[in-house]
């Protein structure tokens, strides 16, 4: 990420066709293959060298997804039906957002155990604010205030972690206890719902999770998004090539764009199947677009801005980052704020998903933090900081959602589902530990 | 703990050196018992420790006093300090005390065990299931032992993942928490099942009586006298034998004060428990069995941590694992044992919990997540450092008492809809305050890293 691309060709003595598998293995493992490969074949060989060096990236989680899909499809032929897949996407969005939130803490080498209850608090606040008999705010004002409230929670916890240097897992452990109490107070002891179709503001909140674009709009949106992303990618790499910078081969760029287009078409095609038992429900759910926007925004923030580079720098070696002039308290505080804001977005989704909220649902929201950590780590984010991307949260969330959905379809009771998730979390952590050991030889 | 007492007088070379003048830094790191020759010196050395951040049990004792006074003032009819309520608080707190002591064993290594709540509940359910009359029908002691051993094995398994594979302990035990919360429901026999103790069966009744049973006041006084005499004699003998061999020993006045303090606290507990807290028709007096049971747990853990090689190694690893490794300590072995003992102790806490709830275990008995939060909070509030190497078993007892007092005090307040949220908010706030004190005191004693 922070490797200086200008220096890479120097040790390979200017030869364009150097075989990366033969020597310079250790260096190859540390440099993204995009920067050294000149042809598609070289790219794949460099990627393979990286995988063997322990930098397996998204490969394990994609393999895991395939295994989950095949396994459950064999066990129950409904699993890969269009209806169930959309259902699975919808359920997974909450895990995905929480996992992205958690990644901001994990990248620093910290942890945020409160994301589940920040989500719970956010869901209660947004639901209370749009109540026609209560605050009766417009839906957009309610969402903005919810996100600001969650940001404030993150700022307080972040300040304790960053400035007072209290251990993050204890700060957020105490924080989640307090938030649980606060959320129950905001809830007012009873039930709050957003399911009344007579009130416009409640309907908007309800539709965030349950509404979808019409099939035609879905196709148009997909075409626009894939087109814009593809053109953007092509133009950027062409630009780099023109300036004589190291760039991946054009065939690789084309392959990436093709992959985007295929997955986009597949997604819209699946979502456009009528999935209602009676009547029609079809089209891409709004939440898929929401998750996509969060994913892109966070990816840009982490991969293309100075802030993102500092986050990785702190996660890699905090003392080195400090000596390089990075303001550790500020970056750390902001990461906790961002984590809580994204958890707040998940809270709005959660309110929409649950339709009516009770004290028991708020208490249950706590357990989502485990799934968030599990999703992030399963996706490939390291627990030790400095390694991970937002896409890992999305893929890991999909795995968790798939396991939940698949086991539920098979009629497995919820306690055994918890056991399965715990096993997957341990496995992911083990892979993380072993891959780090493989990569750096550290204990 | 590991300071060599033989070297201390050499540097000071005069028996009456005034410790307030110089050698401040060294004095701070050495327990005052080892340098003070008189009560006045001891008090001064102790005050200096306080100011430098080594406050020991003082904050938690102060907090208990404050909580007691505040709740006595604000509860309706000033009911908090009634003997019946105090005895109930002892019973409630013992669960947190035992779990906090369990957690302390792991916190001392600078690790954490987030699964103690779930493991404790599993231990309780196993013991309850094994004594069921139409069923396993094991003798109570065997059921208890089986629960401790099974939970110890669970702890050892988590310890292996942490110590050998070096997966961070909070992830291992987070997964363990999920895993054992699920398995708990499975061995209970489903989400709506429960397991009950039949008090008419003498075998099951013994487990039921662990918290519910009472020792008559007369026997209570006898036990107290025996305990105080034994404690005093052992302290006295140890000190005099140290003095005879030319080692530094705390002044005799200090020992007398300690014995008196233990006697006074013990007498207070017995007196409180001897007041009739039933009705005029049916009197209820006596000391719950659970108080001596917790004292035994405290005694065992204090001995293990303070007087055995295993305990010294735990502190050594918590202070600096690399230094401990180079000194020849089998670091993974000690870590695995610590996790195993933590889980075994937690199992005892779970059995006490079931007994406290009148011998019934269901999925609603306790929330494993809240139990673990309370036990970590109790340990840290009591004075155990999260960064390893600092803490004693007594800290778990005091922290558990504070948590239990807050939890019960809030429930007395009849706040209506506010009482449920306060049960979460107050422990959370107290936990954050305790960690803040821990962090600031470490910074004060100059050991914290900048990053």
Describe the overall structure:
- The complex is a heterodimer of chains A (443) and B (451).
- Chain A has 443 residues and is an all-alpha fold.
- Chain A has three domains: 1-53, no CATH class; 61-209 and 285-440, no CATH class; 212-281.
- Helix content of chain A is 71%, strand content 1%.
- Chain A has 19 helices and two strands.
- Chain A has a two-stranded antiparallel sheet with strand order 1-2.
- The longest helix of chain A is centred in the middle third of the chain and has 28 residues, at 215-242.
- The radius of gyration of chain A is 23 Å and the shape is globular.
- In chain B, helix 17 (368-382) runs parallel beside helix 19.
- Chain B folds into two domains: 1-52, no CATH class; 53-213 and 289-444, ABC transporter involved in vitamin B12 uptake, BtuC (Orthogonal Bundle).
- In chain B, the strands form two sheets. In chain B, strands 1-4 form a two-stranded antiparallel sheet.
- Chains A and B meet through helix 8, helix 14, helix 17 and helix 19 of A and helix 9, helix 17 and helix 19 of B.
